[in-house]
Amino acid sequence: MTLPIPAEADWDQAPTLLDGAMNLDLTAEQCDLAYWFRAVAQGTLRDRAENGHTADEVTPEHMRKDGPLRDAQILELGCRSVAEAEGTKALAYYVAHATGLPEMDFFATQLMDEARHSMVFRNHLVEMGVPRDELHRTIAELSVDYKREVLDPILEFALQSVRDEDDFIGGVAIFTIIIEGVLAPAAELSERKWNLIDPAASAIARGAAIDEIRHLTVGSSIVREHLARHPEYRSRLMDIIVRGRKLWDTIPDKKYIMEREHLFQEGMHQHAGLIGDYEVWPGRRLLDTTAEERYTTAEQWTDKMAAARLVYMGLEEAIEILRLT
């Protein structure tokens, strides 16, 4: 008997990243290895395993031509591919330090998810015309400062907890609340803004977002369950959140996001006829948005999503600490 694909992993039924991360309740016990092989490998990834999109979700010719749109996409996916690759390496420590078998199995699947994301982001650059034999050099060159200034500090913060201090729950909180929680809305925006301009890229972002829903919700449930069993851990967790927020305030992520958003701004107006009246969010045409507005809106999504997850974990007092806008 073939079991149905759970709605949250079904390509057509899964909610948006924001809706799913704010409203779904998934646990490590639910999202075990069997779940991943059935729901993700045979569900979400059906016909999308290699490139993150189907043959019908094409890479338009204009994305292969030199110009601001192509430059924006290469910057975005190049940096995101490095972020996912570095996250994969960090998650190996989560597998090694997991406090139980359900947690170990879940983080083994998250490790696979992040490695896949890195792969499909890289592969799309090849689809856009970056020569495969120059791919890794190209990505390394464009991401060297981003890796040093943004990725290395936040991942080292996570590894200090899970690897050096053997605090698995603290590491889960950092990955779920600080790292995934802050970076995830960029994936939501990517899916929306590339919808008509680059359907393949939008599909790739959609697949990654379906995975991120699971990462955020299960990570939140692990922290929630631990706090229920060990309320004395709350003070340690609040200290981690305060230190994480202070760290994030020192990280110059905005300059990297705005560089590609300004390129996107220039490029989208060159293809205004293709975009037309498409609304990037309800009531707002993509063509009417600015780079700053898109960045600010993604920050607002972050605050809204973080607030919902913190309430779920019983950490309402952390909402104001993490508020970005």
Protein model, in words:
The protein has twelve helices and two strands; from the N terminus they run H-H-H-H-H-H-H-H-H-H-E-E-H-H. With 325 residues, it is mainly α. A two-stranded antiparallel sheet has the order 1-2. The longest helix has 31 residues, at 199-229.
Which key features would you list for this structure?
325 residues; 70% helix; Ribonucleotide Reductase, subunit A; two-stranded antiparallel sheet; globular
Question: Secondary-structure blueprint of this entry?
Answer:
Blueprint (H helix, E strand, L loop, with lengths): L16 H7 L9 H12 L23 H30 L3 H27 L7 H30 L3 H26 L5 H31 L4 H16 L3 H18 L1 H4 L3 E3 L2 E2 L5 H23 L5 H4 L3
Antiparallel strand pairs: 1-2
Quick recap:
With 325 residues, this protein is mostly helical. It has twelve helices and two strands.
How many runs of DSSP E, i.e. beta strands? 2
Identify the CATH homologous superfamily: Ribonucleotide Reductase, subunit A
How many domains comprise the coordinates? 1
Percent of residues in helices comes to: over 70%
And the CATH topology?
Ribonucleotide Reductase, subunit A
The biggest beta sheet reads:
2 strands, antiparallel
* Rg value: 19 Å
Low-confidence stretches: none
CATH top level is: Mainly Alpha
First-residue to last-residue Cα separation = 50 Å
Shape: globular
Tally of alpha and pi helices: 12
Strand content: under 5%
Give the rounded overall mean pLDDT: 94
Strand order of the largest sheet: 1-2
H/E element order: HHHHHHHHHHEEHH
Backbone structural class: mainly alpha
Question: Any idea what the CATH architecture is?
Answer: Orthogonal Bundle
